[in-house]
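task queued by scheduler; priority normal; single chain, no ligands, no partner chains; default sampling; output format set to C-alpha cells
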Amino acid sequence: MAFEALDELLDETLRLPIGGRVYTVPAPSAEVGLRTQAIIHAAATAADGGRADEQVLADAAERDLYADVLGSAHEQMVADGVPWPALKHAAITAMVWISQDKDAAERFWNAAGDPSRAAPNRETRRARSGAANSTRSRGSSSGTSTRPVPGPAKGKGQRRR
C-alpha cells in the first residue's frame, strides 16, 4: 500500500458565505499556522491569568494577522467592501480553523462568535441525546432521613403530662 498525495486527500480550504458571495480561504502556510497557534496559546494563557510570551504577542501586533489567516480571500473581501465585523468574524473563524479544526470553525461561524449560541441549552442537549426520560431518580443515598425522630420512650418512672 502506498501513501496517496495528501493534497488529493484533504480539502484544506474554508468556504465562507458573506453577503451573497462565497469566499474561499486557502490553507495557511506552515509559518502562518505555527504563528497563529502560538498567538492563540499566548492569548489563552494571558486570559487565564498566566504570563504570556510578550514576544509572541508583540509579533502579532506588528503583522496583519487577519490578512495572513485569510490569505487571498482577505484582498477579495476588502475589494468587495465587506463590512469590518464580517471580515473580523471571517478572520477569527479562520484562526479557529487553524488552531483547532473545520468543525470548530463551523460552530464558531454559525454561532456568530457568541459562545452561548454555540452550546445548546440543557433541554436541547438532553432531547438530542435521548437522555431525557421519565425514570424517577433514586433520591439521596447519604443515609439521612427526613422522617421525624421519635421522642424518648415513656416508661416507668416518667410522669405523664
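post-processing summary
- The beta strands are 13-18, 21-26.
- The chain is about 50% helix and 5% strand.
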